[in-house]
Each structure stands twice: as C-alpha cells, then as structure tokens.
Amino acid sequence: MEDHLFDIDKQLYEKMRNNYVSEAERKFFERQEWKAYNEYTDWELLIETNENEDGLYLLREIYTEYEIGISDERPIESIHTMTLAEILAVNLKSVGFIDRDITLLDWLRERDYKGIRYDRDKNNL
Description:
The protein starts with 6 loop residues before the first helix and ends in a 15-residue tail after the last helix. It has one domain (7-117). By secondary structure, it is of the alpha+beta class. The radius of gyration is 14 Å and the shape is globular. The chain has helices spanning 7-16, 23-38, 84-88, 104-110; strands at residues 41-47, 56-62, 65-70, 77-81.
C-alpha cells in the first residue's frame, strides 16, 4: 500500500476513528481513507450541485486532493486543497458559497452526509 497521505490527513483519520457522530460519517471517512491509499482518480464527484439546496459540489482528485465549488448564476467558483483535512475546514460563508457561517465538515454533518455518492469516479464510469 503506497502512502499518499499528508500528515494532516493521517492525524484527521486517527482523530475521527471511533469518534464518528453517525454511521454515515464513519462510512465517509473510512472510504476516503481507503481511497487515499488505494484508488487513483482523475476526478470523483462525491456531491453534485443539483443534489443539494446550496448548489455545492465536492470532488476528490488524484488520491488525496479535493475541490469544493458552487455553480449557480455566477461562473463556477471553486477551492482546491491537497488534503481532506483542509477541505473540511473551509468556511463556506467566508469563501462566498453560502450565507451561513459553517465549515464543510459541519455542513456535511448537518445533513448526515446526504448526497455523498461513492459510485461516480470518472475512471470507472
């Protein structure tokens, strides 16, 4: 198993292990960790804009990179990070995606990871 993980993500996965707030959260973190070690992707669409009321999308790229963005009347805007820990810490209000002061992690928890899909990897479509 090749180690693609940055220390910040290793620490995140260790911190989350056995501290999940729901079964959906456990599934999300376990899958993302497995994929970070084992599954290259050009892009994997985890959340699509038309599947949530805020119009956000979330992509996983390569092994450990993530992008969150929004597409509405504006041109597509996005934030790219090298790690899951960094993308989960993005404050969605401060980057102008939504009008509530909330991180991506808290947004996902609020919706109990509704809309996350694990079957939209471009390499496997």
